[in-house]
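User: Hello, beginner here. Can you help me understand these amino acid letters and fold codes? It all follows right here:
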Amino acid sequence: QVQLVESGGGLVQPGGSLRLSCAASGSIFGIYRMGWHRQAPGKQRELVALITSSGTTNYADSVKGRFTISGDVKNTVHLQLNSLKLEDTAVYYCATSTLSGDYWGQGTQVTISS
């Protein structure tokens, strides 16, 4: 089992920045990938950014150039959110892929509002 704890969400104005963190614990030896997903009200959950144990990253087109994922997938992964837009408002979830399955965090709310 892997436990994931997200932190760093909040309320910010358009154009502002936030930094989300996801701390992994438990059976971390099998983790090979960690990602951030988000779900806005009335919309499907979508993948925002991904990082592998080798450091390879991938981003959704909607966040490229604005969001940066970094960190160690077996410890803590961060998501830096810059130039935030109203449409970035969502619950952001951390998820990890391991040799024994996928695990999800509880989510953290990010609200962009003027």
In short: The radius of gyration is 13 Å.
